[in-house]
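Lab notebook, bench 4. Still working through the backlog of constructs that have no structural model yet. Next entry is a single chain of 291 residues. Request: give me the structure tokens for it.
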Amino acid sequence: MLTSRFEFDAIGTSWEIDTPAPLHADIRKQILDTVERFDSVYSRFRKDSMVTGISQAVEGGSFTFPSEAATMFDLYDRLHAATDGAVDPLVGQDLELLGYDREYSLVPREREEGLLRPSWHRDVIRDGSQLTIRQPLVVDFGAVGKGYLVDVVAGVLDKAGLSDFIVDGSGDMRHRGSSATAVGLEHPFDPEMVIGVANLNNRSLCASASNRRRWGDILHHVLDGRTGRPTTDVIATWAVAADAATADGIATALFFGSASRLTSAFDFSFVRMFADGGVEISDDFDGELFT
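Model written out:
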């Protein structure tokens, strides 16, 4: 039974790690150091991050990320292809123009005339964990990054010999243990309600909803990389996969079009809710819907 909880704040949100016994101080420190290293590389909200350096590289250049980043970049390649470019880490520029910038101004600005929208496959040359660019680019790894970090933290626990735990990065979670755990699927219109339950057993569950980071009447953080505009048809998604990075990326990709193209390229199950209140659930989803 998971009776102990380690709580902390990281990458702009709250985290919880549930274990059978309190984590040793050395493990807690290792987790916090791991999270800090991740933030120092991938955050577009920090002045000292590598991502910020890319946004300020007037003449472009090559940037070598930690070697394990190749796994995350590979996933972006696949998601970008499976969604015809809708999932694109270069939406950072559009997020900033819409007001979701480092200062959290939440004040939209007009796009400069003639300013082209960059594309992950067109404007980035990738060699493993190295990215080469020809101009400054605002990269936002939000579609995959939190799930990826959940996996990294779970790896710390694995190496420490823990066999039962839940890592929960504010809705993006990874479970390991002998007994399944029931996870409520939060209603996007009412956080006090759930629309169903997922049975999570040695898998990862990630959720995304357009109401979580929303400002103005129609602005939110889930953008279509082809248009730079917030999505409108889907309002919430839940994806279950073997690892949290994949589940996180799929949860974003499910905002764009039919799920059939994703199911042919990835192994996952899902639930998603549409703006008209309709709900879609995959046949292999381990859980129950109440609506």
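Notes after review: The two ends are 30 Å apart (CA to CA). The helical segments are 25-42, 50-55, 69-82, 92-97, 120-123, 145-159, 244-253, 260-263. Flag for follow-up if needed.
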